[in-house]
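Morning F.,

Quick status update on the modeling queue. The single chain you submitted on Monday has been processed. Sequence for confirmation:
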Amino acid sequence: FFFDNLLPYIMASSDSTRPVKQMKTDDDRMACATPTDVAASAGFHAAAGVGNACFAYLTHDPTGQPRPRFPQLPADSRTVVLDIEGATTLISFVYDELFPFARTHCKAYLDKHWDEDALQSALNVMRSEASQDVTQPDKYPRAISIPPYSQDTKEHGIECVVKAVEWQMDMDRKISGLKALQGLIWKDGYASGELKGHVFADVFSALQWWKETGVQVYIYSSGSVGAQKLLFGSSKFGDLLSLIAGHFDTAVGAKVEAASYQAIAKQLNVPPAEIVFVSDAEKELLAAREAGIGWPVLCCRPGNKPLTTDSCGFPAIRSFLELCRNADE
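Structure tokens below.
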């Protein structure tokens, strides 16, 4: 029985203060379990009553049409690619914890590590990107050049980098140099214990289930591979990296471009039609579908953006456990 098979994974990931219970109907059985409260940080299922507009369209899209069924792993596929923000992780963790941490600790980190190769490597990427940005003042009016490395001009260099970080973060830019620098700052935070990666409890359970049943799990995020590994390697459930087969970031391409998903499929040597991709972002799912990804799946979590008609035609879930079933069940 499906629930019995998953129960050890559910119980292992559940906070003892948040008991789980078996759902009573066959339709709800795929949800597996639900907490007795609806705290966003609890994982598992968030109730529609928490005020998240996306939950209104779990079974039917904004036009009123029924959504297609979601895939079952490993029954339908043995390869799943996961987004982070709004999928594996509460979106507010990134914007309310990680991003402010990087911003407030940036200057101190630069001052402490200025002469280190890892930092200067990230800054060299930022310098290259900044040299392009300053040529587009209409698009990037706050763009600033970052001078070459020099110990003699360290103070001025740090000032320029901090300004660059601030305006790029204000615009929520997804570019490699900024992501690399943020990753270094977060690494310090995780190492000191100031940061713990947020992962929904159902994600932890699903990762264990998929590992046990031979499903290959990959992460694709606009955050750098290094930052991804920090989040999952220092999560509130401990080090989860052994449950993940690989990572992709913007080095493979932007997440809203179909070519990126084709490149991932090529690197994995898996036909796009056999891949499941889970994300909260409609434009990413549209790009994945254009690339031929067989199972683009919409993930609804507390705090995610309201859905639009761009979400039409995609199956929707609120828990990764809804994707877990063997072929013979």
